[in-house]
Every structure is written in structure tokens, then in C-alpha cells.
Amino acid sequence: METGFYGGISSAQIVVPKAEALELAHKNYFEMAIAGRAIDERRRVFFSIGKNLCRVQGADAIVLGGTDLFRAFEGQDCDFPVIDCAAVHVDAIYQMSVRES
């Protein structure tokens, strides 16, 4: 998050959580990934940070860049738009496989 997706996105402004929120997101993401599941406490942290990014920092959508983040967001109403990078990648792989078949 700190590098703006490794500098690979130039067509949009990248908004990242402020220092304390960034550290909190990382800690909760790591704990969720190790546990292999999302608990409501972690979900509340992610949703609070996402809402702040949208409502205070002006983000249009939250990019779920971590492959395990779907665990916290799947089937949940987080009250802000999300883009699940894992789903985007799976769709791109599928589209490539269909074209090459």
C-alpha cells in the first residue's frame, strides 16, 4: 500500500490509510492470514479503515490487494465499494484460457 501498488498505477490517485491505520490493517491482515479465517473483530477493523478512506480521504473504492482479504469481505455489507484483486486475476486468467482454447 505504501508504494501505491509498486508505482504501477498512474491513471488513478492512490489513497492509503494514515500511519496508525496502515499499521493496524497490516497487523489484522497478518493475523487473519495466519489463522486462515476472518473474525468479526478483524472485519470491524478493515471496514472502519475502508469507510474512513472513502468518507474522509475521498477514495472511490477500496482495492482488496491481499489474497486473504476476501475472507473478511465475502458475503458482507461493508457499506463502501470494493475491488477484489484476487477475483480480477481469476477472471483475467479465465478469459485468457477461453481465448486460447
Write the layout of secondary structure elements.
Elements lengths: L18 H17 L4 H16 L6 E3 L5 H4 L8 E3 H16 L1
Parallel strand pairs: 1-2
Short description:
With 101 residues, this protein is mainly alpha-helical. It contains four helices and two strands; from the N terminus they run H-H-E-H-E-H.
Structural class by sheet pairing and helices: mainly alpha
The general outline is globular
Q: Report the portion of residues in β strands.
A: 5-15%
Helix content: 40-55%
> What is the number of beta strands?
2
Uncertain runs are none
How many helical elements?
Answer: 4
| Distance N to C terminus | 36 Å
Helix and strand element order: HHEHEH
Whole-number total of structural domains: 1
Largest sheet: 2 strands, parallel
Radius of gyration: 15 Å
Q: What does this 3D model show about the protein?
A:
Strand 1, helix 3 (70-73) and strand 2 (82-84) form a beta-alpha-beta unit. The model has no long low-confidence stretch (mean pLDDT 88). Strands 1-2 form a two-stranded parallel ribbon. The chain has helices at residues 19-35, 40-55, 70-73, 85-100, and strands spanning 62-64, 82-84. The protein has 4 helices and 2 strands. It has one domain. With 101 residues, it is mainly alpha-helical.
List keywords for this structure.
2 strands, 52% helix, 6% strand, mainly alpha, 101 residues, single chain
